[in-house]
Amino acid sequence: MFSDLTRNYLSGTIPPQWGSMEHLRNISLIGNRLNGSIPKELGNISTLQTLTVEDNMMSGIIPEELGNLSSIERLFFNSNFFTGELPASFAKLTTMKEFRIGGNNFSGKIPDFIGQWRSLESLRIQASGLEGPIPSNITLLESLTDLRISDLRGRDTPIPPISSTTRFKNLILRSCNLIGQLPESLAPQNLKVLLVI
Predict the structure, then answer these.
(1) GO CC terms for this protein (predicted)?
(2) pLDDT on residue 166
């Protein structure tokens, strides 16, 4: 079952009742005028694979209950007004393939648990409000092909290790307060876009 309401003029909040849809796999609300927070009840949808709420006017903290989404592969929170730290319960989301949280007002550091998402293919943390450093276990994820991190808060930190076996196609590390020498491994074989500023 899919709920695709992308690019309309919908306003209001996401109904908590959606959490009772037992067979829902995809919720796409991209490009509307939704406000309020993400209902914690959505964490009850064990079949949910995709939740995209990007480009709305939503706010508040991300509920811990979303860490119960045992089938989730894509979470897109970018271009909203979310605050607070990313829930520690997200460490359980080991089926994650794509994660986007840019253009928000999050706080705290980039969590190490992202490095446990072994299936992760795309990670975009651009102007999210988070602090560095970039955890080294993220840049060593072998399935990761698209890594875009920018505008990190915090102190200067060494550039994270880049494995020569990583399959990067896009690697953007802009305004991340990185220091030190450029490593030779920063140019994986499949790389098409490299931007380190």
Answers:
(1) membrane
(2) 66
Could you tell me if 149 and 173 are in contact, meaning their C-beta atoms sit under 8 angstroms apart? Answer: yes
**Res. 189: pLDDT tops 70:** no
Q: Which two tokens stand for residue 58?
A: 């939503």
The residue among 47, 93, 85, 105 whose CA lies nearest residue 66 is 93
Comparing 2 with 20, the larger pLDDT belongs to 20
Give the Cα separation of 95 and 40 in Å (integer): 20
pLDDT of residue 1: 61
Q: Which domains does the chain have, with CATH numbers?
A: 1-107 (3.80.10.10), 130-197 (no CATH)
**Does 189 or 146 have the greater pLDDT score?**
146
Tell me what the pLDDT averaged over the chain comes to.
91
Say if residues 142 and 165 touch (Cβ distance below 8 Å): yes
All residues at 6 or more sequence positions from 126 whose CB lies less than 8 Å from its CB, including other chains: 78, 102, 103, 148, 149, 150, 151, 172, 174
pTM, to two decimals: 0.92
- Cα torsion for 122, 157, 113, 100, to the nearest 10°? -30
Report which secondary-structure segment, H or E, holds 177.
none
Distance CA 121, CA 15 (A): 30
